[in-house]
Amino acid sequence: MNHFDKQLAVAIGADHAGFDYKEAVKKQLEAVGWKVDDKGTYSTDSVDYPDFAHPVATHVAEGKAAFGILICGSGNGVCITANKHAGVRAALCWNEELASLARQHNNANVLCIPARFISLDVAKAMVETFINTVFEGGRHEKRVEKIQC
């Protein structure tokens, strides 16, 4: 029902704990033809996660990005921050099934990854699942419509 528009870039961001995963996920996305809009950080130096979550969420909310990916140590900080933006449905996932359900049932448009708690292989599998899973709509549509305040 709702596929991501490959004409738009993917907005991606991470703090220092997620930097290495961000770099690997960027390569994964580019290898299958996605344009990637990297909002930082650009090293493992300690930074504040909202400085990267807000730009990703803004691009998703404004329709400038097909979807977003945010990565920090626990995934919680970036997820909480992104969900402050109207129209953003950020989902913290730690396995492929949750990434799939976030798309199918919640029409999530930002995937949040807890780099300190899952392997890079699991993170990459979640990204692939998130991208390739379609929102089911139907009974879920009315629920999603009730999310935004």
How would you describe this structure in keywords?
single chain; 149 residues; alpha/beta; Ribose 5-phosphate Isomerase B, Chain: A; 5-stranded parallel β-sheet; 5 strands; 42% helix; globular
How is this structure best summarized?
This protein is an alpha/beta fold and 149 residues long. The protein contains 6 helices and 5 strands; from the N terminus they run E-H-E-H-E-H-E-H-E-H-H.
Characterise this structure.
With 149 residues, the chain is α/β, with parallel strands linked by helices. It has a single domain (10-145), classed as Sugar-phosphate isomerase, RpiB/LacA/LacB (Ribose 5-phosphate Isomerase B, Chain: A, 3-Layer(aba) Sandwich), CATH 3.40.1400. It contains six helices and five strands. It has helices spanning 19-31, 50-61, 76-82, 96-106, 120-132, 139-145; strands at 9-14, 36-38, 65-72, 90-92, 110-114. The model has no long low-confidence stretch (mean pLDDT 95).
Main sheet overview: 5 strands, parallel
Could you give the order of the helices and strands? EHEHEHEHEHH
Going across the biggest sheet, name each strand in turn: 2-1-3-5-4
Remind me, CATH topology? Answer: Ribose 5-phosphate Isomerase B, Chain: A
SSE class: alpha/beta
- Low-confidence regions: none
CATH superfamily: Sugar-phosphate isomerase, RpiB/LacA/LacB
Write down the CATH class: Alpha Beta
**Count of separate structural domains:** 1
Distance between the termini: 24 Å
Radius of gyration: 14 Å
Overall form: globular
